[in-house]
Amino acid sequence: MKPGDDLKKIIYKRKNTGKNILTFLVVIWFIVLVMVPIYGILRQVIRNGMNIFITSVSTPAAGHSFKLTLLLTITAIVINTIFGTIVALVLVKQNFRGKLFLEGLLDLPFAVSPVVAGFMFIILFGPKGWLGNWFHAYNIKIIYALPGMIIATLFVTLPFVAREVIPVLSEFGLEQEEAAYILGASKWQTFWRVTLPSIKWGLVYGITLTIARSIGEFGAVLVVSGSIINRTQTATLHIHQQFTDFNYSGAFSAAMVLALLSFTILIIMKCLYKNKEAQ
Amino acid sequence: MVKFLMKSNKSDLVLRSLSLFYLGLLIILPIAAIMSEALKGGLINLWNNITLPQALFSLKLTFIVAIIIVFINMITGTATAWVLVRYKFPFKNIMDALIDLPFAIPTVVTGIMLVTLYGPKSLIGAFLGKYGIEIIFDKPGIVLALLFVTFPFVVRSVQPVLLEMEPDMEEAAMTLGASPLTIFFRIVLPSLTPSILTGAALSFSRALGEFGSIVIVAGNIPLITQVASVYIYGEIESYNIQGALGLSVVLLIISFLILLFLNFLQSWSKKHETWR
Fold first, then answer.
1. In terms of CATH, what superfamily is A60-278?
2. In this structure, are residues A90 and A137 in contact, taking their beta carbons and an 8 Å threshold?
3. What is the pTM of this model?
4. Less Cβ around it within 10 Å: N or C end of chain A?
5. Contact with chain B for residue A236, Cβ under 8 A
6. To 10 degrees, the CA torsion angle through B220, B221, B226, B230?
7. Contact assignment for A40 to B113 by CB distance below 8 Å
8. Global ipTM
9. Which residues numbered 15-54 in A keep a CB inside 8 Å of some CB on B?
10. Could you report the per-residue pLDDT of A63-119, keeping only the tens digit for each?
11. Count of A-B CB contacts under 8 Å
């Protein structure tokens, strides 16, 4: 026994009551704030019964909205994975003037209110906007149509992949890539064989975050889409529509589906995170 | 060899142009467009739009609720991180995993959940309604929704710092007879300050911009429950672009300031690391 161990024991004992009270308070706060609302919606859906749940989730408008959300999510994954990786590569491996400025800009989509984000795109791509002007001349609709919704989704999910890949890339360093290069690999080969495997988990984690946000995005998409039933309504907009139409069982059922989906994504994310940490 | 790799060549230039194109199209251009549109009408016009009674009220309400929830989050978030790192209790791992749930759940779903739980027809809502307390479609609902969606921010920024903290200083203080509270306030809290402030700034930023959960929980009642984002949405809906521009510019400028503050905090905590 080391000297002082006795003393520690006494002090830890003294702290125990405070410890228990604090733990109790924290757990209660978490349960009341986060878990009880989730239980609330589950109870509501169960009380309504399985039949109402299935009929309200399988209406044409609901089906269309889920499909549209799926489409937006896949588009966001593909485009943001490619560009997010490129942005991360450029910010980590290159030096140029204005780099710090670009890196600061990267976080902006997290800081801007989704409604303001949507509004920015209305101004830019609206019929009188700088770019909207041009698209208007060719009769291409961006606002209140699919392209605008894609752009809004890309904006709100833009930082995820880049932000997850940047730290992995900076820790990875240059040595292995240099080795590959010395051994005669082309830049392209080096990327596919050396760089990509090393950033794999960061990439996967970034994509998971992108999926969660694309499914859940509401404000930005609502503003640019105009929420037209069966045309520009995503799952979250559908829930909002059902709620404002006082069709509560429809809103609860669709909300339940999204809640389950996000719960599943969270579990997957936690498992992936363990892999990422292990690497 | 290294020199050759580092040299700017064609593929580097292509990648750099692609990033500039992407960030330019999605971030720089939209912000430039909204700022120029706002300035087009003149600063006086912009100011008048911001100081309309309804706009000013929504801005004030947004700030007040944001400050309230930031204050609560700083305390509960730090306590949660502390308990999760330092103590052992049943189901700790499950709770640790579920902390992120508010980030994963779509904000509209959050709003719907709170309505089913506290709405006028629910058990709790009906009970409180008897005493004239309304949660849903009133201000308490806004606070509740914001507390839900911002809950993980402080926890997740404080937790890693606490995990890396060596207990030797605390043990030294303890053997010298300091009480647990003294140890916390004199030794632990100063090292945690940058991370608590980071979480607070993130919560504040989210609270200012939050829309989905609030529009469901509090509705859109001017001069009662209308927060800034809901006000902007209402103006866009009624095609009043000028009205929406005023508050949008205010929120955008605050977002910039928060990003700058977060940058400052990051360099501060880095300095802290080298000191120790």
1. MetI-like (1.10.3720.10)
2. no
3. 0.91
4. N
5. yes
6. 20
7. yes
8. 0.91
9. 15, 18-19, 22-23, 25-27, 29-30, 33-38, 40-41, 43-44
10. 999 999 999 999 999 999 999 999 999 999 888 888 888 888 899 999 999 999 999
11. 258
